[in-house]
Structures are given as C-alpha cells and as structure tokens.
Amino acid sequence: MSRPTILLLGANGQVGYALQTVLASLGTVITCTRKELDLSVCNEQSTLLSELVKKVSPAVIVNAAAYTAVDQAETDTEQARTINTVVPGLLAEAANAVGACLVHYSTDYVFDGTKKGSYQESDQTNPLSVYGQTKLAGEQAIAKTCTRYLILRTSWVVGAQGGNFLKTMLRVAQERDSLRVVADQIGAPTSANLIATTTRHLLLEMLAQPASDPRWGIYHLAAAGQTSWFYYAQYVLSQAREKGWPIKVAPEAIEAIATADYPVAAKRPQNSKLDTSKIRQTFGLVLPDWTHGVEEVLTQLTRERQDLLRVPPSGE
Ligand SMILES: NC(=O)c1ccc[n+]([C@@H]2O[C@H](COP(=O)([O-])OP(=O)(O)OC[C@H]3O[C@@H](n4cnc5c(N)ncnc54)[C@H](OP(=O)(O)O)[C@@H]3O)[C@@H](O)[C@H]2O)c1
After folding, report:
1. Is 0.90 surpassed by the pTM of this model?
2. 116 to 42, 272, 293: CA distances (angstroms)
3. How many angstroms does the Cα of residue 104 sit away from the middle of ligand 1?
C-alpha cells in the first residue's frame, strides 16, 4: 500500500506536535499551522480550507487545532465558535469532497460533570462554558456531514510542548513558597503522546474502511485512573523534586481548595472522568495509568532543563 498523505492542522499545539512525529511512520504528513492559515478567518463563506484540502488531496485530515483558552472563550465567543465549530464543519465537507477521513479531538467539557460515575459516549451532554458549547457544536457539525470520521474526546491534556497545568505547577512552585490548588474536580491527565499513538493505531485499522463500517464515530480517550488537580500537583512536584528541580513549595505548603475559592471566568465540570470501555474494546487497546504519561513528560522536561543548564554562557 502506498503511503497515505495526512493533512495535520494545529501541528504546533500539544497534541499536534506529538502527532507530527507519530504519524510520520504512517504516511506523509503535511502540516498546517497558524502561519500557513489563520483559522479565525474561516467563516461559513470561506473557501480557504476546501481549497487547501483539494490542493493537498489527503487520505486523512487530522484536526488538532482548537481554541483552547477556556476562560478567554467566555468573552471571545466569535473566535471560539469559528475555530471550534465552523472549522470542523468545513473540514467535514472538504473531507467528503476528496474522499478523506477526518480525525478530530473534543473534550470532557461537553459534559456538566454532575454524573456520579465516568461519562460514556452516549451520556447526555450539557456544556457549562462557551468553550464546551463550541466544541460540542463542532462534534455535531462533523457527525451531521462527514461520512468517515473519528472524534476522540479527551481530558486534561499534558505534553512537553505547549502550555498545560503540569508546566504551570513546575513554574510557580519554583517561584513561590505555597500553592492553592482545586481539589474538588476530578479527571485523568492524558498525555499528548498517548493521544497521538492511539490516533495512529486507530488510523491503521480504519484508513481503508468504507463509510458503512460501524466503528466510525465518537470515542472517549483518556488515561486510566483518576485524580484531582490537587493530587496531580502534589504528584508532579514530588516527582520533580526527586528529579532535581529546585521546587520551593514544601509538600505541606500545597493547600487543597474548593472550586468556589478559585473564581475563574468559565465554569468547569466537577467530574471529568471519561469511560474508555468503547475505544478499548473496539480497538483492543490497553490504556496506561495517568501517572505514566505525566512521568514521561516530566522526564522529557527534566532532560531539556539539564541540557539548558549545560549550555555554556554566550558572549563575554
Ligand atoms: N488542553 C487540554 O487540556 C484539552 C482537554 C480536552 C480536550 N482537548 C482538545 O484536544 C485538542 C488538542 O488540544 P491541545 O491541548 O493540543 O491544544 P493547544 O496546545 O492549545 O493547541 C491548539 C492548536 O490550535 C492552533 N490554533 C488555535 N487558533 C488558531 C488559529 N486561529 N489559526 C490556526 N491555528 C490555530 C494553535 O496554534 P498556535 O500554536 O499558533 O497557537 C495550536 O497549534 C483540541 O481539540 C482540544 O479542544 C484539550
């Protein structure tokens, strides 16, 4: 079989960056970043995306681009809607036009977090934020139009590239003596690398499948286990300390607080746990505990930090 062409949008994000490397072993990856195309100009009338897709003529479109500034989205509604809702719809149409399949990522924030157990794909959605609403509408735009698609809803993404909670904790714990971290929201930190390798696994199975294959559709993809932001922070900082990071915050100086004690613009679900039975059973996957991915990211960041410390000072 010849190597498929894969068009990857959002290639500089956490997930996009991991996908660049992982998908290169599957096909020829053509990346599209903000520099090539600013997606915020892609309104319903825009033909930029369909022209791009026609030109590249990919077998697969992977959309890792998204408006992920959750609090900012509360006021920057139009941009969030364009990137999270309009663009996925346009990509779905463009994919159909060239016979490509579409892989898209979505979020635990499509749920309101009031369920007692983990969320299944069939559970009622009820986003609490503009970000969640625009992501849900993006899913619906794809499902309505695209004949061959995989939507992977994930949670609490962590990677060495880009911004995330782990990196914020590492930074502030080197600057301050104490930290206050929300303890009443639970979920599973999921590494960008796990998302990328799972995407590759799914594409290997699905790439040649017709639209009638019942496995096209929506899946929950998250690491196994669960934690709160508070325990996640504790875990990261204790591991970082062991790896030689100059962490100023003592373990007892991390204070567990309630969501209500940390006011932010967007409401988050208290329960972000995603049930991953469907993806595991359908594709024979074993998903590792969340600590594995976090450990991997920390190891990589530690290596990068050590390399930086070894660089001799430039100039006089
Ligand atoms: N982060 C999380 O915790 C989380 C949780 C659940 C689900 N997800 C979903 O997982 C997927 C990947 O998330 P991520 O964490 O990798 O996000 P990310 O690191 O914020 O990356 C998003 C990418 O989208 C690109 N982008 C944003 N606005 C753009 C614009 N106007 N034009 C062109 N490109 C634009 C960004 O480009 P620049 O690099 O130029 O900014 C970036 O490469 C998304 O669908 C997200 O909704 C994320």
Report:
1. yes
2. 39, 10, 25
3. 11
